[in-house]
């Protein structure tokens, strides 16, 4: 294909194609190096950062500190393990006594409310 294009565009096209290939390789290497540097730092930030949680959530999870993503995963695992989704409306979660302790005593919670209700259990960092 490069040969056919060089016939149409002349010999200068090969130089442009080579420059583009070198540029793409450099960009890929730079992106990979940036990802490796971020992984090397080893300090997660944002929702991946491990933070202290409220006593109620700590008792539910069994740990005093956890990241937001890990807490949400464990709560959803508990919901699925105990079959607490409403069979007729999968968007509703039927709270048992253990879930009521972290969901403000509500009997039912919408699946979009889970993250909102859990946010009150994480301490605010300065």
TrEMBL record:
<dbReference type="Pfam" id="PF02201">
    <property type="entry name" value="SWIB"/>
</dbReference>
<feature type="domain" description="DM2">
    <location>
        <begin position="46"/>
        <end position="124"/>
    </location>
</feature>
<dbReference type="InterPro" id="IPR003121">
    <property type="entry name" value="SWIB_MDM2_domain"/>
</dbReference>
<dbReference type="InterPro" id="IPR019835">
    <property type="entry name" value="SWIB_domain"/>
</dbReference>
<dbReference type="InterPro" id="IPR036885">
    <property type="entry name" value="SWIB_MDM2_dom_sf"/>
</dbReference>
<protein>
    <recommendedName>
        <fullName>DM2 domain-containing protein</fullName>
    </recommendedName>
</protein>
């Amino acid at each position: 294909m490069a040969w056919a294009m060089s016939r149409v565009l002349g010999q200068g096209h090969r130089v442009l194609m080579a420059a583009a290939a070198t540029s793409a390789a450099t960009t890929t290497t730079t992106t990979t190096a940036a990802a490796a540097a971020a992984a090397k730092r080893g300090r997660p930030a944002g929702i991946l950062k491990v933070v202290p949680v409220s006593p109620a959530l700590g008792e539910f999870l069994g740990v005093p500190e956890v990241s937001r993503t890990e807490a949400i995963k464990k709560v959803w695992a508990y919901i699925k393990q105990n079959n607490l989704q409403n069979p007729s409306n999968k968007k509703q979660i039927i709270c048992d006594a253990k879930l009521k302790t972290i969901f403000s005593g509500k009997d039912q919670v919408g699946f979009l409310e889970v993250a909102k209700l859990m946010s009150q259990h994480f301490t605010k960092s300065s």
